[in-house]
Amino acid sequence: MFITFEGIEGSGKSLQIGRAAARLEKRGVPCLLTREPGGTEFGRALRRVLLSPGGGRREPWSELLLYLADRHQHLKEVIGPALERGRVVLCDRYHDATRAYQGAARGIPLDDIERVARLLGVVEPDRTILLDLDPETGLGRARARNSCDPAAAAEGRFEAEEISFHRRVRAAYLDLARRFPGRIEVVDAAGSPDEVSARVRDLLDRWLP
Ligand code: TMP
């Protein structure tokens, strides 16, 4: 079972996926928690390049190809082997993020993205949890975190984008949920972390009884 978590900046994905992994481990379900970009050593180098606020301007296609390079390496080196060993793989962001950010928000046609993804053997996850939140709240949370955490600020490239960018990302995620109704579950990410965890837990209990 390959499960991904998606959502806009500040939607609480990383906290929720960490809790989900801990809970599955406690239930005795062997699982692997990983993320994109940065699930391999090469990917961690790419992550620094992709997310640091400096580093000069980049064309949408340049950015897309780096995200796909990270994904290809991750699938070959980590995700594929873990699934073959029968592990549940929980991945913090994956290909829907490329569709939403590089596709809808940066403007690369989805057909082009899918054509390259197919060449690289990018597979769809079995299930996806989309933590949905309005961008004003999410961005407010993310920027507050960055202002008191230097490590988070060093990855602040996307938080610096204006609100209209994040609105396009959210709308694209909700479109994807309509396009893949059997795979993507929309979870309301408003409320306390415990309230959101309870919603996520109900889904995971249904998928992994
Ligand atoms: P995060 O790991 O803190 O969520 O940050 C990853 C950032 O990278 C986030 O702003 C979304 C962005 N991203 C893309 O633009 N395309 C992608 O394919 C992925 C995986 C992430």
Briefly characterize the structure.
The protein is of the alpha/beta class.
Could you explain the architecture of this structure?
The chain is of the alpha/beta class and 209 residues long. It has one domain (2-207): Rossmann fold (3-Layer(aba) Sandwich), CATH 3.40.50. The chain is built from nine helices and five strands. It has a five-stranded parallel beta sheet, sandwiched between helices. The longest helix is centred in the middle third of the chain and has 25 residues, at 60-84. The protein is globular and about 45 Å long. The model has no long low-confidence stretch (mean pLDDT 96).
Question: Topology, pairings included?
Answer:
Blueprint: E1 2-7, H1 13-26, E2 31-35, H2 41-51, H3 60-84, E3 88-92, H4 95-105, H5 110-119, E4 127-132, H6 135-148, H7 150-153, H8 163-179, E5 184-188, H9 193-207
Parallel strand pairs: 1-3, 1-4, 2-3, 4-5
Bound molecules: thymidine-5'-phosphate.
Thymidine-5'-phosphate (TMP) binds next to helix 4.
For this structure, what is the CATH homologous superfamily? P-loop containing nucleotide triphosphate hydrolases
Strand content: 5-15%
Heterogens: thymidine-5'-phosphate
Uncertain runs are: none
CATH topology: Rossmann fold
Radius of gyration: 16 Å
Number of domains: 1
Number of helices: 9
Largest sheet: 5 strands, parallel
Number of strands: 5
Task: Note the run of SSEs as H and E.
Answer: EHEHHEHHEHHHEH
Could you give the order of strands across the largest sheet? 2-3-1-4-5
Arithmetic mean pLDDT? 96
CATH class: Alpha Beta
Shape: globular
Query: Roughly how much helix do the residues carry, as a percent range?
Result: 55-70%
- Using the 3D structure, state the CATH architecture: 3-Layer(aba) Sandwich
Structural class: alpha/beta
Distance between the amino and carboxyl termini: 12 Å
